[in-house]
């Protein structure tokens, strides 16, 4: 019963996450990918950087749920491996552009630091996942790639926290940007750690 409930909760939140990602992606990413002038105007002088960043970030963002599912189920290992390599290369490129955009941001220093930190954790978690798959330690590989995807979701959660801050009218706009920049990856990582520990405890049960 507990196992069934845990699976239900896991799949429920996964479904909600996919729907939220699809909504934010269509509202916030697509305008850059179709070269919307209004969206790009905010990045005058950095248009190529933001387009490359959004395009390459979109690959692991959209592929992540399917990668995790294939990894858990052991489905289509060759395709899983190729898509994983594609995602890692995309993350390397997207993180590089994220560093440039964070350093040259038009917002507060706290926002820049938070987004830069997200880029560092993105590279670190993905690199750890790669190291463990090369060592054939697949369980640890899975844990680190789930953490990597939690950081990938910062693209989504950043905008969610902005909307929450605007709705409850707490702090100034710059303060809300700073809180969102840090919370966008800290909160998902904390939730991810709880889920990983819960999965390990369940696997240890007789």
Shape: globular
Total beta strand runs: 0
Largest sheet: none
Helix content: over 70%
Rounded mean pLDDT score:
81
Percent of sequence in beta strands: under 5%
Query: Are there runs of 5+ residues with pLDDT below 50, and where?
Result: 1-5
Strand pairing plus helix content: what structural class?
A: mainly alpha
Query: Rg from C-alpha positions?
Result: 18 Å
Tally of helical segments: 8
The helix/strand series, from N terminus to C terminus, equals HHHHHHHH
Distance between the termini: 15 Å
Write a compact overview of the structure shown.
86% of the residues lie in helices and 0% in strands. With 206 residues, it is mainly alpha-helical.
Keywords:
single chain, 86% helix, mainly alpha, 206 residues
Explain this structure:
The protein contains 8 helices and no strands. The protein is an all-alpha fold. The longest helix has 32 residues. The N terminus is likely disordered.
């Amino acid at each position: 019963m507990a196992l069934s409930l845990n699976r239900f909760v896991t799949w429920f939140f996964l479904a909600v996450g996919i729907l939220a990602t699809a909504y934010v992606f269509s509202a916030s990413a697509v305008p850059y990918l179709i070269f919307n002038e209004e969206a790009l105007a905010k990045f005058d002088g950095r248009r190529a950087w933001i387009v490359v960043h959004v395009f390459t970030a979109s690959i692991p963002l959209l592929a992540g749920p399917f990668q995790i599912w294939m990894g858990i189920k052991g489905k289509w290992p060759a395709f899983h491996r190729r898509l994983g390599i594609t995602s890692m290369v995309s993350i390397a490129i997207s993180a590089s552009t994220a560093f440039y955009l964070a350093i040259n941001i038009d917002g507060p220093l706290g926002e820049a630091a938070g987004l830069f930190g997200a880029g560092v954790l993105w590279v670190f978690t993905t690199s750890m996942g790669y190291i463990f798959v090369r060592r054939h330690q697949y369980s640890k590989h899975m844990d680190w790639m789930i953490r990597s995807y939690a950081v990938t979701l910062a693209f989504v959660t950043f905008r969610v926290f902005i909307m929450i801050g605007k709705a409850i009218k707490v702090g100034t706009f710059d303060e809300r940007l700073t809180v969102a920049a840090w919370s966008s990856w800290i909160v998902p990582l904390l939730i991810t750690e709880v889920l990983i520990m819960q999965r390990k405890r369940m696997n240890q049960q007789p």
